[in-house]
Amino acid sequence: MTDTIVSDATAASSKPATKPARPYFSSGPCAKPPGWDAAKLATDVLGRSHRSKLGKTRLQYCINLMREMLQLPDTHRIGIVPGSDTGAFEMAMWTMLGARPVTTLAWESFGEGWVTDAVKQLKLDPTVLRADYGQIPDLSQVDWSNDVLFTWNGTTSGVRVPNGDWIPDDREGLSFADATSAVFAYDLPWDKIDVATFSWQKVLGGEGGHGVLILGPRAVERLESYTPAWPLPKVFRLVSKGKLAEGVFKGETINTPSMLAVEDAIWSLEWAKSLGPKGLIARSDDNAAALQKLVAERDWLGNLAADEAIRSTTSVCLTVEGADADFIKKLASLLEKEDAAYDVAGYRDAPAGLRIWCGATVDTADIEALGLWLDWAYATAKAA
Questions:
Q1: Bridge-based pairing state of the strands 127-130 and 175-178
Q2: What residues form DSSP beta bridges with 197?
Q3: Phi, psi angle pair for 68, to nearest 5°
């Protein structure tokens, strides 16, 4: 395909002939994997108790698949918990923080949310290291005698930490990584991560409502040796009689899960297994590279994260020359009405721009087909 680049309103042209086959570019919930069909989901467990032998077997199978695909060491535990990634991360905060000073890093809206929880809800008076959208704080300034909270990949800013090298092996505090847009898309250094959280609705294209909590051995030690000063809701309780509630990490969930959502996650994980961990990462990388090619060919598009070393390969946030929120809304609406691209407007708290999900469940050909439609929508919105 040869792109005709549109640089201003006078270049408005007819609608492109080819649309993305699956125009799902939302950053959550994200596109289903290729070939997904609700009719393909196993349903034997529906209508059964999640505590039945079958229910617990399917939950444990889901956990086992996640461990295999993440290449997670046996030292780390995986639990399915309520409330999506937000619930998982707040569970970690409420159960483990307060034992030592806290540092929170914020360069987008969800990081700011953890700051708010630490300051206003838990009253912890944390050290806060901030950066504007598109940038990242100076990671060398982090004091690792503190517990440290950060987003591995900022979904709303398109900024990620470059790697795990900034996290020392001899850290005194715990590392808490909100990794919901990073898990399955990057080769994560699990020896650097004490607590990680994510949801199925991102890189796996799963359903919302359930979070995943991953605990390293240092996090387990904290849970068993420290009792927070504040009361804990039942859905946050991970310790019983001073010991980790191991059942939570063997399919015995704290509250009732949607077994249909679990079966959906299992289907996605089995699809992912057919590709292998490196295959999932490669799909995200290929998608991001295809999108960057489109950006490079258009003088009216740019990256909110100018530094490639910290640029996300999943939730890619783009700037649009001369655009404000109303212009972006119109541009996104034009694409949606044509079934050419869904949900591509940037996050409401972020600078006006586009956000294109490039995770593994998106096909590279659909990213490539998006280019001419972006041209058409930009020119049409500008002409109007």
A1: unpaired
A2: 178, 213
A3: -65, -45
Strand partners for 103: 127, 148
**Cβ within 8 Å of residue 278, ≥6 positions away:** none
Residue 2 has pLDDT above 70, yes or no: no
Global confidence as pTM = 0.95
Distances in Å between the Cα of 162 and the Cα atoms of 272, 312, 350 are 24, 9, 21
What's the pLDDT tens digit per position in 152-167? 999 999 999 999 999 9
DSSP state letter for 242: T
Say if CB 91 and CB 238 are below 8 A apart. yes
CA-based nearest residue to 198, from 206, 33, 284? 206
Q: Which two tokens stand for residue 17?
A: 């002939």
Q: What is the sign of the dihedral through the CA atoms of 148, 347, 371 and 303?
A: negative
Q: What is the mean pLDDT of residues 128-148?
A: 98
Residue 80 Cα to chain centre, angstroms: 16
pLDDT digits (tens, 9 = 90+) for 46-98: 999 999 999 999 999 999 999 999 999 999 999 999 999 999 999 999 999 99
Tokens read off for 129: 């290291």
CA dist., res. 27 & res. 30, Å (int): 5
98/124 Cα distance (integer angstroms): 7
